């Protein structure tokens, strides 16, 4: 984009016109003005810009900044730099004037107990942006995103949709399209409603207009023919035409511009030629200065340049002034910067490869000497280092360790590069292998990590192999290969000289492998021995023993004992001694509390887990709380909230590449879809469940067996459902385990077994749940479940009535009422039609209130047999759009957000995660056909005024 003038946007609004010096981009400028106007009205927007270097991306951003600033926008301006591409969040941090070092870590949190800072850093950015956006509209421009670090792209993928309801315009620009992560980001943001433009070469008319702007006259044919060598690239055009003008190669006559001579002595066919010709006119000192500056990056500090050249800054002033006079470099805040990337690249290319390599290594050394982040220096070492250079390798090692908590992918790149530069016989190779394995594991590259770990074991120093072997066992476990993981971890535990800490960690992994393989009995004796010697065992082994014995206790029907074990595991883990795995036992406790219908305590546990995940960066478990809360919402009959939590969890898991507890979320969505009557969606989620289960991405809790069986029954009938259940419950112990985990399974499985013609199996289920109820009188959900199952098997109306009156979860209560109505309607002798209708009406009301449309439709069909027709309450009372279409949760979210609360603040008041609030807010905006918090506040205020008038 070339030109000499700036747009004028005075008056009441932004003009949608082109202007002198800025030709051929009127359509793109209209998009910009449309987005800025929308932001003035409270709506956010996204413009995704791409195109070759020199096409005008940076100019478009600059003009947008000028226009937005004139209209009172807050401005956040940043760009990615090729030599800072390893620095996490650098473009966003510089745009917002923030620094992670300024934030510090929360109280009680240290780098040693932070497993992954990504989530915490992104959350801090979100909070600071929201604090600014409540004050007014903002324009955020980020240039050269092809060089952005992985965490910046992850942050944008989260922040842009999260803040869509605020008056913020995002303008993101990139040059190349060979970055897969950046391609995915552009695709996702476009699907979310962002506008996407590709800046194409200027057409003939625009070229002619631009030439007139630069030269002051209408260009004649010969001049335009020479301008064609720029290929419609605006930057090259301006440099070419400006060069011709400055060299007096163009003359003006009668308002026309023409070449003085048909043969030009020096035609800059590429900007590199222009740059070199500019360099040729510089003194040797200024030329040497620019070449050294180019090695430091697109922008650079005078102090770094002086140290690199080993000269005092004062002695560089003359050369700097000469370089600035050429306009190859310009002043940019407290630094100097090359005026355009193409100029920087041209100067860089003027260096011979040996000189360039030497300068990069020197620049890396200079940055390391400053004592700051090693990541900046590592960018110079990554490409230009030679094998065996100990100084360079030490810098890469330091940078990898430094960046691992905040950007594991960058750490993996650094560690793998260090390995490439390390000889096989080098004693340091093993430590670098361990770092690389840790980084690859953190990024989810489990197969690559396992392969590298196996290779590393071949050259492990004596006594140092166990740590790597344990990491290999974890990789195999998470990669869905528990049998291989078992071999590795057992070989560790057989070693007599294993350190206590590593033995405890390996013991925890062994217990987890046994749970995944449903081979818990094999570990019982060892778990009990560990607890017997608890004063001599570490936290990992103790927590693992308690988790395994919880499963044993429930499989033996000892509910209180199992709950005590999981409480103790959660208590041990709460100290943070399990590192990234500290959250998992407490999430398991929350699940168990839902199992036994202790909903309030489960909610409290999840709230504490959410706070710790956010504060300590347990990214591996980041989605876990949302998944478990989705299960809690499902059991308590809040289908919309259950779906919102589960989808929020899937978004987090997809963004961060973590999949712990994901099977719960997928099954929740399958069951919710089925209850709503959407069988294709339910089948889709079951298929997704099988994909995740076979890949070993998470440990399947026992509860999911019921979810898969419910969908199997809807798809293939009772016999197919019983086949699924038998596969999960091959013996009485597994039936006990599953019936404790999901007590509603007792009645459902009894009914399904009878429908499948398997009365013996139905009797087994009933006798099992009755025994559980008898042995665990302190858990009334088992007593009610036993009454429900017994009522179905023996056609006992009194038992069904007892169950219906006692159930806490609405679906189970409605199911018992339906069973009672069906029984009364089919009683031999004289059926009690009135009581049957009453029971079915109670069932219908319960199903409709929770949105279980499939069950409600079945009950209506039963009522029609009695000549009773009930209207479709759920559908008729709630329209598709407008305020009355909002659910109670959506109205609460709308009211809180309209008061100016952020998603995080609204979630804290409603005991929802910010991601779930975001999901509900999207539904609110869709139903109300709005796109901003300003519009929402207006609607809520109107509703409040109307309600006040009605009350008056």
UniProtKB/TrEMBL annotation:
Record carries keyword Kinase: no
Residues annotated as domain HTH luxR-type: 879-944
GO biological process: regulation of DNA-templated transcription
Sequence intervals crossing the membrane: none
Keyword terms of this UniProt record: ATP-binding, Nucleotide-binding
Cellular component annotations (GO), alphabetically ordered: cytoplasm
SMART domains named in the record: HTH_LUXR
Gene Ontology molecular function, alphabetical: adenylate cyclase activity; ATP binding; DNA binding
PROSITE patterns: HTH_LUXR_2
Coiled coil start-end: none
Name the UniProt record assigns to this protein: AAA ATPase-like protein
Organism: Actinoallomurus bryophytorum
């Amino acid at each position: 984009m070339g030109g000499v003038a700036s747009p004028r946007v005075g008056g009441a609004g932004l003009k949608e016109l082109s202007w002198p010096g800025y030709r051929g981009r009127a359509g793109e400028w209209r998009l910009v003005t449309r987005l800025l106007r929308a932001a003035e009205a409270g709506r956010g927007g996204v413009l995704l810009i791409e195109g070759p270097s020199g096409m005008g991306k940076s100019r478009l951003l600059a003009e947008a900044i000028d226009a937005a600033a004139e209209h009172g926008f807050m401005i956040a301006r940043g760009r990615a730099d090729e030599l800072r591409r390893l620095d996490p969040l650098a473009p966003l941090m510089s745009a917002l004037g923030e620094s992670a070092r300024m934030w510090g870590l929360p109280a009680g949190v240290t780098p040693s107990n932070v497993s992954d800072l990504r989530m915490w850093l992104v959350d801090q950015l979100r909070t600071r942006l929201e604090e600014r956006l409540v004050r007014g509209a903002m324009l955020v421009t980020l240039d050269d995103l092809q060089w952005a670090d992985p965490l910046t792209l992850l942050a944008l993928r989260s922040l842009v949709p999260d803040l869509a309801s605020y008056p913020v315009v995002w303008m993101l620009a990139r040059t190349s399209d060979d970055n897969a992560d950046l391609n995915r980001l552009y695709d996702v943001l476009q699907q979310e409603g962002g506008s996407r433009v590709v800046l194409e070469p200027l057409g003939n008319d625009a070229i002619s207009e631009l030439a007139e702007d630069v030269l002051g006259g209408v260009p004649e044919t010969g001049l335009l023919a020479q301008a064609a060598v720029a290929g419609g690239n605006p930057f090259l055009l301006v440099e070419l035409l400006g060069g011709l003008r400055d060299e007096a190669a163009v003359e003006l006559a009668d308002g026309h511009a023409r070449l003085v001579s048909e043969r030009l002595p020096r035609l800059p066919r590429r900007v590199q030629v222009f740059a070199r010709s500019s360099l040729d006119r510089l003194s040797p000192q200024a030329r040497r200065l620019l070449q050294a500056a180019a090695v430091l990056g697109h922008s650079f500090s005078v102090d770094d340049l002086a140290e690199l050249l080993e000269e005092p800054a004062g002695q560089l002033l003359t050369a700097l002034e000469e370089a600035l006079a050429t306009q190859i470099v310009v002043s940019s805040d407290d630094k100097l910067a090359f005026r355009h990337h193409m100029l920087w690249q041209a100067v860089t290319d003027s260096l011979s490869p040996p000189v360039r390599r030497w300068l990069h290594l020197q620049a890396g050394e200079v940055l390391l000497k400053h004592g700051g982040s090693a990541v900046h220096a590592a960018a110079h070492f990554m490409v230009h280092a030679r094998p065996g250079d100990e100084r360079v390798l030490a810098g890469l090692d330091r940078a990898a360790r430094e960046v691992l908590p905040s950007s594991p992918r960058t750490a993996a790149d650094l560690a793998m590069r260090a390995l490439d530069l390390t000889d096989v016989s080098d004693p340091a190779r093993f430590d670098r292998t361990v770092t690389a394995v840790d980084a690859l594991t953190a990024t989810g590259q489990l197969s690559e990590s396992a392969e590298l770990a196996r290779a590393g074991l071949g050259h492990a120093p004596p006594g140092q192999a166990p740590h790597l072997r344990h990491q290999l066992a974890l990789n195999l476990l998470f990669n869905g290969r528990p049998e291989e993981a078992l071999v590795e971890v057992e070989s560790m535990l057989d070693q007599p000289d294993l350190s206590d800490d590593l033995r405890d960690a390996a013991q925890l992994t062994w217990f987890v492998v046994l749970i995944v393989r449903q081979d818990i009995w094999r570990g019982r004796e060892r778990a009990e021995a560990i607890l017997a010697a608890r004063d001599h065992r570490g936290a990992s082994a103790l927590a693992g023993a308690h988790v395994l014995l919880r499963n044993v206790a429930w499989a033996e029907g000892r509910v209180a004992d199992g709950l005590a074990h999981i409480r103790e595991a959660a208590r041990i883990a709460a100290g943070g001694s399990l590192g990234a795995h500290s959250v998992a036992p407490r999430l398991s406790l929350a699940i168990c509390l839902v199992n036994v219908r202790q909903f309030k305590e489960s909610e409290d546990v999840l709230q504490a887990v959410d706070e710790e995940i956010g504060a300590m960066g347990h990214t591996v478990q980041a989605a876990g709380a949302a998944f478990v809360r989705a299960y809690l919402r499902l059991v308590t009959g809040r289908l919309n909230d259950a779906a919102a939590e589960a989808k929020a969890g899937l978004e987090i898991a997809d963004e961060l590449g973590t999949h712990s507890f994901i099977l719960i979320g997928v099954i929740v969505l399958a069951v919710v879809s089925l209850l709503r009557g959407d069988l294709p969606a339910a089948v889709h989620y079951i298929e997704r469940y099988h994909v995740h289960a076979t890949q070993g991405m998470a440990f399947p809790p026992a509860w999911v067996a019921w979810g898969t069986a419910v969908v199997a029954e809807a798809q293939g009938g009772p016999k197919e459902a019983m086949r699924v259940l038998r596969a999960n419950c091959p013996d009485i112990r597994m039936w006990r385990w599953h019936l404790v985990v999901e007590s509603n399974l007792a009645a459902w499985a009894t009914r399904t077994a009878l429908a499948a013609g398997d009365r013996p199996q139905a009797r087994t289920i009933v006798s099992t749940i009755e025994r559980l109820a008898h042995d665990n009188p302190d858990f009334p959900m088992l007593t009610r479940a036993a009454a429900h199952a017994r009522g179905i098997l023996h056609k006992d109306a009194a038992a069904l009535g007892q169950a219906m009156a006692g159930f806490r979860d609405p679906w189970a209560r409605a199911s018992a009422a339906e069973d009672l109505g069906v029984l009364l309607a089919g009683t031999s002798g004289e059926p009690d039609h009135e009581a049957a209708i009453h029971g079915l009406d109670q069932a219908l009301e319960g199903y409709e209130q929770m949105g279980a449309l499939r069950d409600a439709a079945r009950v209506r069909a039963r009522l029609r047999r009695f000549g009773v027709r009930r209207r479709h309450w759920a559908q008729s009372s709630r329209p598709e759009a407008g305020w009355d279409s909002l659910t109670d949760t959506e109205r609460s979210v709308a009211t809180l957000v309209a008061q100016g609360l952020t998603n995080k603040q609204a979630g804290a008041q409603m005991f929802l995660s910010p991601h779930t609030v975001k999901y509900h807010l999207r539904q609110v905006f869709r139903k109300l056909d709005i796109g901003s918090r300003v519009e929402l506040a207006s609607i809520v205020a109107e509703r409040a005024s109307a309600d006040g008038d009605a009350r008056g």
